[in-house]
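Title: Comparing notes on inverse folding

I've been comparing how different people in this forum approach sequence design from structure. To keep things fair, I'm posting one structure and asking everyone to reply with a full sequence. Here's the target:
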């Protein structure tokens, strides 16, 4: 019999005895070297550099003069720069790696327009998504040399670096002379006439934007088909590379309303929407981001607003980036797109991946399913049926192993907030137990677990967007500092890098279990049992064909302990705990009797002769 022997690490025991139980690890718990790790072997930590650690206060204003509306720095305002930077992030690598993290994904660090917005509605580009210079690090975050130092420091530790990139839009620099911004469709405002179907003929010979021939696009010289784009004199050459200042390379059709044609052709909340159908834009973006691979040897891209770009762009861009990485010796390059929605389903993700040939995407459906099931709002059946949709991804269920899974993020809000709202209870002990349960689902089920910075310190947002982007260092934002954190008596008014926090310790323990287990990292899923109509048991068996390892992951979403017999593979000859409490032996061939406390979880190795 082939058995995987495990020993309980004393440092891992104390924090998980309640609900989860101790994690057992073996000598294989150390992550493999970067080049040897597959995509599904990673544990990702997502961070906004501005909100993490301030390593150099001298760059807080980005070298700009004036007040907050000019330089963007105001640590009391949730929508402005707070001072975090690359030096601070580099200095905290010990803290990040202490959770078992193997890859860091950070919000864009390209130079942004410091402040934009209508009078009285201004906010700053602290988040990184309002780019004006795609070739340089934003001076609020540091320099290109400091970015290289960060990448080198992460790589020296065996940690991968994922950049957040944008190809859909730039900062809001282009205005419309008409002073109107409602979306104007291609049918009512074709490329061939100015200002509507009855307008003057323009762009003679242009055969539409579905013809990628550069000769065809050379005939699109007049951008006034829908609106008349104008740029102020002081911003006419603000974008880099310089080709981005050409207004004919943008859609210029007004604001998106997120449905149909406008979802691809409309301005994203006023941001200048690039005509990604244009071969000049395609080649330009390939040059921009290929250079970051060449110069810094990064390990992957998270692609912002991927579903708002035409599929043909990705069909050209993705292979070019993978080839560029391969030429640099980075055969493990990980690309995953943002396909934003809030439903517990795989359908939209699979559709966009298939249309665009994106290899992976953030698993939005998993996030919503985990929120609803861990909170008790929905029965485990919801997660079971969601996992059974894995077959619809391009490439089948094995593709789902490389989808980054998450619980909450900087756009939608934090997981603990959703759990509190959906459960209808903010009892501190119950909330912590449910949040622990959700993290266990993320680490023990398929996909690449992605921790949102601050979740390990019990951060709990008041809402989405700016309200979910708290400071790890001492915050001066009143809307953050009045929050009661999960599992802690601290507030965001103080520095929060507590390695003894129960969620920080839990994440480290779950990461150790996952790193030690090929079945948890690469195992396909067989749903074994689930409660259909009320909170209760979810049981999923994970099997890694390469090593033969099988692990049974079980969860109790109910408010009472449970004991239940669960079907397992008939190949199993014995059962050993990996994390949590597992039975001492099988109940019968093909069956294990699982006992779980309230909100408990466990992962049990099924010993086989394989």
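Reply #1:
Here's my take.
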């Amino acid at each position: 019999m082939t058995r995987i022997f495990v020993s309980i690490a004393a440092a891992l025991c104390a924090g998980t005895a309640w609900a989860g139980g101790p994690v057992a690890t073996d000598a294989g718990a150390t992550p493999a070297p970067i080049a040897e790790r597959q995509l599904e072997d990673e544990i990702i930590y997502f961070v906004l550099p501005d909100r993490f650690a301030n390593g150099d206060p001298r760059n807080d204003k980005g070298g700009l003069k004036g007040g907050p509306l000019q330089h963007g720095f105001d640590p009391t305002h949730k929508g402005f720069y707070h001072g975090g930077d690359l030096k601070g992030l580099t200095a905290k690598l010990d803290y990040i790696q202490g959770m078992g993290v193997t890859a860091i994904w950070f919000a864009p660090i390209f130079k942004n327009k410091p402040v934009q917005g209508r009078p009285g509605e201004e906010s700053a580009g602290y988040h990184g998504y309002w780019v004006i210079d795609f070739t340089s690090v934003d001076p609020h975050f540091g320099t290109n040399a400091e970015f290289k130092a960060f990448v080198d420091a992460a790589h020296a530790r065996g940690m991968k670096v994922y950049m957040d990139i944008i190809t859909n839009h730039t900062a809001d620099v282009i205005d419309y002379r008409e002073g109107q911004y409602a979306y104007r469709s291609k049918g009512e405002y074709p490329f061939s006439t100015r200002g509507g179907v009855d307008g003057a003929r323009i762009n003679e010979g242009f055969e539409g934007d579905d013809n990628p021939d550069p000769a065809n696009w050379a005939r699109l010289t007049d951008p006034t088909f829908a609106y008349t784009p104008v740029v102020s004199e002081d911003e006419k050459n603000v974008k880099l590379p310089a080709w981005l200042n050409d207004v004919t390379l943008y859609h210029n059709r007004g604001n998106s309303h997120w449905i149909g044609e406008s979802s691809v052709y409309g301005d994203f909340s006023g941001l200048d929407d690039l005509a990604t159908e244009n071969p000049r834009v395609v080649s330009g973006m390939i040059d921009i981001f290929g250079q970051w691979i060449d110069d810094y040897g990064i390990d992957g891209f998270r692609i912002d607003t991927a579903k708002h770009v035409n599929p043909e762009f990705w069909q050209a861009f993705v292979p070019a980036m993978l080839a560029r990485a391969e030429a640099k010796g980075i055969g493990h390059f990980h690309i995953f797109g943002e396909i934003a929605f809030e439903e517990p389903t795989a359908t939209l993700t699979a559709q966009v991946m298939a249309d665009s040939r994106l290899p992976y995407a953030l698993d939005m459906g998993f996030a919503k399913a985990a929120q609803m099931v861990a909170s008790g709002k929905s029965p485990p059946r919801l997660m079971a049926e969601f996992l059974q949709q894995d077959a619809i991804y391009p490439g089948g269920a094995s593709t789902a192993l490389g989808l980054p899974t998450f619980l909450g993020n900087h756009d939608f809000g934090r997981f603990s907030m959703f759990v509190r709202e959906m459960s209808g209870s903010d009892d501190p002990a119950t909330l912590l137990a449910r949040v622990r349960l959700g993290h266990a689902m993320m680490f023990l089920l398929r996909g690449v677990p992605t921790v949102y910075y601050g979740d390990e310190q019990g951060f709990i947002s008041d809402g989405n967007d700016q309200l979910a982007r708290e400071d790890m260092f001492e915050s001066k934002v009143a809307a953050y500092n009045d929050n009661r954190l999960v599992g802690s008596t601290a507030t965001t008014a103080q520095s929060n890098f507590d390695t003894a926090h129960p969620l920080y310790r839990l994440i480290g323990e779950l990461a150790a279990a996952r790193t030690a287990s090929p079945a948890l990292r690469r195992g396909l899923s067989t749903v074994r049992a689930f409660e259909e109509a009320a909170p209760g048991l979810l049981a999923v068996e994970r099997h890694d064909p390469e090593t033969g390892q099988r692990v049974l992951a079980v969860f109790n979403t109910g408010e009472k302990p449970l004991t239940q017999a669960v079907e397992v593979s008939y190949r199993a000859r014995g059962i050993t705990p990996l994390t949590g409490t597992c039975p001492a032996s099988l109940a019968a061939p093909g069956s294990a009797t699982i006992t779980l406390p309230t909100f408990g979880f466990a992962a049990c190795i099924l010993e086989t002769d394989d």
